[in-house]
């Protein structure tokens, strides 16, 4: 039996862009992932599909497993010879109980490694425009927890000493005890007028920041129903937020956007929306599967060199074609003299990633446009075309080329099927929280979203990538609030940004 290992990995504060490269490398080879409540579920996409994913999250009054049970689970899976990733919010050794888990592994003789993560104690204030140190204001930083082990007979938290400490103080957790903590800090000598900031869901599009003085912040938090997960910053540096608040001023900050693509493809659109401050999350409605007619497809790919043109209509088609091609051939030159046409920049870029040039790419990203462009180049009569496409895709391209006298072979390269696994938690979020916007990047995403029969929020707006998808949405009884002028991912982002900033 191979010897197992457990990686205690810091998942960072919430923004998946702050996840470390080493953490990602650990996830990519994980056989078991044991993760917490505060871990962004998007990170689970880095793990292999076959990896077992076990949620052991803890919220106030709701623990899936006790800490002792979690420790035992880590030991059990590691001793079974598996590569285990224990994914913990923030940094595993900063109030994350990672030390206890490491001790349990060490006691059991298990191999383990620690992979530090970006802590919300630093990243949270930074995303709220608050530098925790600044030469003009302080030269020290104190980090403490407002939530201690309730089984301890006495508190180790000396708030009087913390109140007397110079510099900035950052409190993780404990917002539910804010009234008692702020009163104790005042009685310990911290000035009542000391600026305080509370930051909730730090570094994510759900971030909320509430500021006030030490004397008033608890009352403000109660009035605003400000709840965990949150941290507090005490000190003069809070005043710098007025000029340094960069994140909450981004154009899509505060907009909740559901992205309906495959889990593999949603990342690009989600990242672009998050870069503009949106609370974007994946709501996968479809997944890509290999063609059910593999032999027929591979036979057509093997004869690619006999065609005059190969027309790709999607990046998925490109991936499926070249996966098959390089299983058959070793040299790109075996594609012969076939010229390549691509619909849309993403499809063209995917072709180029295989070190092949695109000979024809229409300005409009629809099948009708490619036919018009082909007619400008030459007569298509008697030319041979290969169309690698999805099962059930529109027949228009093949039909029109055949009408013009072309010889057309359609190669079913892949198929889209409904996504049934909610690994990222997007379906659950949509049910519970809804969204301001929902994006559709293909007819299949729209059809499978409707098939989920999710309740639609009253003010939900839809964003369509192009006319074909819009037509499908209307057929399904959904309104189309905006349609991208450029029918690609940047076009969708641009359309939402413009619509969101209009008065």
Structural description of this entry:
This protein is of the alpha/beta class. It folds into 4 domains: 5-118, Tetrapyrrole methylase, N-terminal domain (Cobalt-precorrin-4 Transmethylase, domain 1, 3-Layer(aba) Sandwich), CATH 3.40.1010; 122-244, Methyltransferase, Cobalt-precorrin-4 Transmethylase, Domain 2; 256-285 and 419-501, Rossmann fold (3-Layer(aba) Sandwich); 290-417, 3-Layer(aba) Sandwich (Rossmann fold). Helices cover 34% and strands 21% of the residues. It contains 18 helices and 22 strands. The strands form 5 sheets. A 5-stranded parallel β-sheet has the order 3-2-6-1-7, sandwiched between helices. Strands 8-9-12-10-11 form a 5-stranded mixed β-sheet, sandwiched between helices. A 5-stranded parallel β-sheet has the order 14-13-20-21-22, with helices on both faces. The mean pLDDT is 91.
What are the SSEs and their pairings?
Elements: E1 5-10, H1 21-28, E2 32-35, E3 52-55, E4 58-59, E5 62-63, H2 67-79, E6 83-88, H3 98-107, E7 111-115, H4 120-127, E8 141-145, H5 159-164, E9 168-172, H6 178-187, E10 195-200, E11 208-213, H7 217-223, E12 230-234, H8 241-244, E13 256-260, H9 263-275, E14 279-282, E15 286-290, H10 294-302, E16 309-312, H11 315-328, E17 339-342, H12 345-352, H13 367-377, E18 384-390, H14 396-403, E19 407-418, H15 426-433, E20 437-440, H16 443-452, E21 461-464, H17 467-475, E22 482-483, H18 489-501
Parallel strand pairs: 1-6, 1-7, 2-3, 2-6, 8-9, 13-14, 13-20, 16-17, 16-18, 18-19, 20-21, 21-22
Antiparallel strand pairs: 4-5, 9-12, 10-11, 10-12, 15-19
């Amino acid at each position: 039996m191979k010897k197992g290992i457990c990686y205690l990995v810091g998942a960072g504060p919430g923004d998946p862009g702050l996840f470390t490269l080493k953490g990602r490398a650990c996830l990519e080879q994980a056989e078991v992932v044991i993760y917490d409540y505060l871990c962004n579920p998007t990170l689970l996409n880095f793990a292999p599909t076959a990896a077992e994913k076990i949620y052991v999250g803890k919220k106030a009054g709701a623990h899936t497993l006790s800490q002792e049970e979690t420790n035992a689970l880590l030991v059990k899976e590691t001793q079974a010879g598996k590569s285990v990733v224990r994914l913990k919010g923030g940094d595993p050794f900063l109030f994350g109980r990672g030390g206890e888990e490491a001790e349990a592994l060490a006691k059991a003789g298990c191999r383990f490694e620690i992979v530090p993560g970006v802590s919300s104690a630093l990243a949270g204030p930074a995303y709220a425009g608050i530098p925790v140190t600044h030469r003009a204001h302080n030269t020290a930083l104190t980090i403490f927890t407002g939530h201690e082990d309730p089984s301890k007979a006495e508190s180790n938290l000396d708030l009087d000493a913390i109140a007397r400490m110079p510099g900035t103080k950052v409190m993780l957790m404990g917002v539910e005890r804010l009234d008692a903590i702020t009163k104790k800090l005042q009685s310990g000598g911290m000035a009542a007028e000391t600026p305080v900031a509370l930051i909730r869901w730090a570094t994510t599009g759900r971030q909320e920041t509430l500021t006030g003085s030490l004397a008033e912040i608890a009352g403000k938090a109660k009035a605003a129903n400000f709840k965990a997960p949150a941290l507090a910053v005490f000190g003069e540096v809070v005043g710098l937020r007025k000029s340094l608040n960069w994140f909450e001023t981004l154009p899509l900050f505060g907009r909740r956007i559901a992205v309906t693509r495959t889990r593999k493809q949603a990342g690009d659109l989600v990242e672009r929306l998050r870069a503009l401050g949106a609370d974007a999350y994946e709501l996968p409605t479809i997944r890509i599967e290999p063609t059910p007619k593999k032999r027929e497809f591979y036979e057509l790919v093997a004869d690619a060199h006999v065609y005059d043109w190969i027309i790709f209509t999607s990046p998925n088609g490109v991936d499926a074609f070249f996966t098959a091609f390089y299983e058959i051939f070793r040299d790109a030159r075996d594609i012969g003299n076939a010229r390549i046409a691509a619909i849309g920049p993403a499809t063209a870029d995917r072709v180029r990633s295989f070190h092949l040039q695109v000979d024809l790419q229409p300005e409009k990203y629809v099948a009708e446009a490619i036919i018009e462009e082909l007619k400008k180049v030459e007569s298509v009569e008697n030319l041979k075309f290969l169309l690698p496409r999805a099962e059930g895709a529109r027949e228009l391209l093949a039909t029109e080329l055949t009408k013009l006298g072309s010889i057309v072979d359609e190669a079913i390269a892949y198929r889209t099927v409904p996504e049934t696994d909610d690994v990222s938690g997007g379906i659950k979020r949509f049910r519970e929280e809804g969204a301001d916007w929902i994006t559709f990047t293909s007819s299949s995403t729209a059809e499978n979203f409707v098939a989920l029969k999710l309740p639609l929020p009253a003010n939900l707006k839809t964003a369509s990538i192009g006319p074909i998808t819009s037509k499908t949405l209307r057929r399904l009884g959904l309104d189309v609030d905006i349609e991208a002028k450029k029918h690609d991912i940047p076009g969708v982002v641009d359309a939402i940004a413009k619509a969101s900033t209009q008065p």
